[in-house]
Amino acid sequence: MRVGLTGGIGSGKSTVAQWLAGLGAQVVDSDAISRALTAAAGAALPALAALFGPEVIGPDGALDRSRMRALVFADEQARRKLEGVLHPMIAAETERQASAAGGRPVVFDVPLLVESGHWRSRVDRVLVVDCSESTQIERVAARPGWSAATARAVVAQQATRAARRAISDAVIFNDGISLVELQAAVKHIYGHWTDQPPGL
Questions:
Q1: Tens of pLDDT along 44-93?
Q2: Handedness of CA 137, 70, 74, 115 (dihedral sign)
Q3: Do 28 and 109 touch, CB atoms closer than 8 A?
Q4: What does residue 83 show for φ and ψ, rounded to 5 degrees?
Q5: What is the distance between the alpha carbons of residues 60 and 39, in angstroms, rounded to a whole number?
Q6: Taking a C-beta distance cutoff of 8 angstroms, is the pair 27, 119 a contact?
């Protein structure tokens, strides 16, 4: 079984992914793959430096993510160039990791599942982790290096909550609930899906 896991920034999707891994799923994290590709000596860095200039590489040798974030939010063409480099590389590594599942359910942790347009056809089910936009902004603004304004800009760039829910097979509303309640919801959905063949 192949599951697409998605949710807006600050929704709690990464926590849900960790629990799914603990339940036995092979979790393929597209964000982690992206970070590896843009870390110091990452495979994507030469192409990104050629496209955007050496100033997008920080003093530590990794992609300057804050600079790149500001650039792509201000320029749609820059965003498309970035995606043109990263998306094919992420897709190749995603499938390589999925092939190592050995028959276990595979969970593809994809923040931009809706925006990509092709993931719905590649998975059997979609699980959405949802919360209010105000909660998203509050959670993200509390992260080091983030502000409420930057968090709002990211939320505005992502698919709407309604668009994510529209393609979902299940939604966990992670707002005003405890971690215990969130974990119970994850276990319930995963147990229900793994007891049935894909497509039911």
A1: 999 999 999 999 999 999 999 888 988 888 888 998 899 899 989 998 99
A2: negative
A3: yes
A4: -65, -35
A5: 9
A6: no
* Nearest partner of 112 among 152, 148, 154, judged by Cα: 154
Helix, strand and coil content of the chain, in percent to the nearest 5, comes to 55, 15, 30
Task: Provide long-range contacts, Cβ within 8 A and 24+ apart, for 134-138.
Answer: 135/10, 135/175, 136/8, 136/9, 136/10, 136/11, 137/10, 138/10
* DSSP element (H, E) containing 2: strand 2-7
**Tens of pLDDT, residues 152-172:** 988 998 999 999 999 999 999
Residue 134: Cβ within 10 Å count? 10
Tokens 């480099």 -> residue: 85
What residue has token string 């709002």?
152
CB 142 within 8 A of CB 185: no
Edge-first strand order for the sheet with 106-109 is 26-29, 106-109, 2-7, 125-130, 170-173
Q: Model's pTM, two decimal places?
A: 0.84
Where would I find the H helices in 99-170? 113-116, 133-141, 148-157, 161-166
The helix/strand/coil state of 170 is: strand
Amino acid letter for position 84: G
Beta bridge partners of 27: 107
